[in-house]
């Protein structure tokens, strides 16, 4: 599971960090989110067994990667709380609160480092070190400190993200906060499994039995958190790209019907030589194409209803009218701004007209 889920989480984190760094936001909240991506990337990169072993070989300290990866998890929690604090409060009020939070998490990590050194985890274990030493009381204290700090942070994230999601405007920000809260719930599942690791040895239980819960909670929770914190940034761009693709296809599909009308009456078009496709100024070009088709339709059939029904029937009627038209005239009515309904309907008419032309 680690071989697939953890590298996936690391990849998402590093890519998210890159896009965030290339973005425009540089306020305290944006910096906190960038650090969140950084710590998330470190957490899952260090947890890769190959990187884990390399850190042990280079440092000469067995299982040092355990402390570094779990320290990065503490950083993940701290930066999320910092970002929320900067979103919720004015900068002057948020700054001292964030500073105090940082002091607390730095203190937790310092205590973890001290307990890690005392625990003497001398045998390198790249896959199960987190549970292998649970019967070592110094390591058990280390693990309890780590998961308790993380649990408090995750619970706070769930509560604050959901509360903030109800208060803010913006669909994508609300969605992102809810995803982040769901990711924190996954973190709490990871915490529950780690608490169980501590009591497993005294009770004679095998912690490997619930290790998949810990790994799924950590991995899936991290993916949801990464998506949650990144959605407000990339979702509007993704939606804009989707709309552009829709308009590009509409402009292209309208061309056969538009071209047929312009051949019959070149005065209908601002640019009778317009190409089948367009990339630049697509909004304006699509608007013009729809207006010109509507003008041509009224010129060709001046008594037609403004909002006809079946696109196939309309396409057949236009084709029949063009077939018997023996003169060129001008548009019989001024242009009317098209609505989204006009565009979508005309695209269906144009596709039906293209089908008729191909017969």
Automatic annotation (TrEMBL):
Residues 244-354 form the DUF6545 domain. The chain crosses the membrane at residues 5-22, 29-47, 67-89, 101-119, 139-158, 179-196, 216-235. The keyword Membrane applies. Keywords: Membrane, Transmembrane, Transmembrane helix. Signal peptide: none annotated. InterPro entries: DUF6545, MAB_1171c-like. It comes from the Bacteria. It holds the Pfam family DUF6545. This is MAB_1171c family putative transporter.
């Amino acid at each position: 599971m680690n071989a697939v889920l953890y590298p996936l989480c690391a990849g998402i984190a590093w890519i998210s960090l890159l896009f965030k760094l290339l973005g425009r936001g540089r306020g305290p909240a944006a910096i906190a989110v960038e650090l969140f991506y950084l710590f998330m990337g470190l957490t899952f990169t260090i947890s890769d067994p190959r990187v884990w072993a390399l850190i042990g070989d280079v440092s000469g300290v067995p299982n040092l990667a355990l402390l570094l990866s779990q320290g990065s998890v503490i950083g993940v929690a701290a930066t999320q709380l910092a970002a929320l604090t900067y979103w919720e409060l004015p900068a002057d009020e948020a700054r001292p609160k964030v500073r105090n939070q940082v002091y607390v998490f730095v203190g937790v990590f310092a205590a973890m480092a001290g307990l890690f050194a005392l625990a003497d985890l001398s045998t390198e274990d790249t896959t199960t070190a987190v549970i292998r030493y649970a019967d070592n009381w110094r390591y058990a204290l280390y693990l309890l400190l780590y998961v308790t700090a993380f649990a408090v942070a995750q619970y706070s994230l769930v509560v604050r993200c959901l509360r903030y999601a109800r208060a803010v405007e913006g669909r994508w920000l609300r969605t992102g906060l809810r995803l982040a809260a769901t990711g924190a719930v996954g973190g709490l599942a990871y915490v529950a499994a780690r608490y169980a690791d501590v009591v497993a040895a005294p009770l004679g239980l095998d912690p490997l039995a619930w290790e998949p819960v810990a790994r799924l909670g950590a991995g899936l929770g991290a993916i949801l958190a990464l998506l949650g914190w990144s959605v407000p940034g990339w979702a509007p761009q993704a939606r804009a790209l989707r709309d552009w693709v829709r308009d590009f296809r509409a402009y292209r599909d309208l061309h056969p019907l538009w071209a047929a009308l312009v051949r019959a009456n070149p005065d209908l078009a601002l640019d009778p030589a317009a190409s089948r496709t367009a990339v630049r100024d697509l909004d304006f070009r699509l608007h013009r194409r729809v207006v010109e088709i509507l003008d041509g339709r009224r010129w060709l059939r001046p008594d037609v209803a403004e909002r006809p029904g079946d696109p196939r029937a309309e396409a057949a009627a236009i084709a029949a009218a063009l077939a018997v038209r023996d003169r060129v005239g001008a548009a019989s009515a001024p242009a009317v701004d098209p609505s989204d309904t006009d565009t979508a309907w005309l695209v269906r008419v144009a596709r039906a007209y293209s089908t008729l032309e191909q017969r």
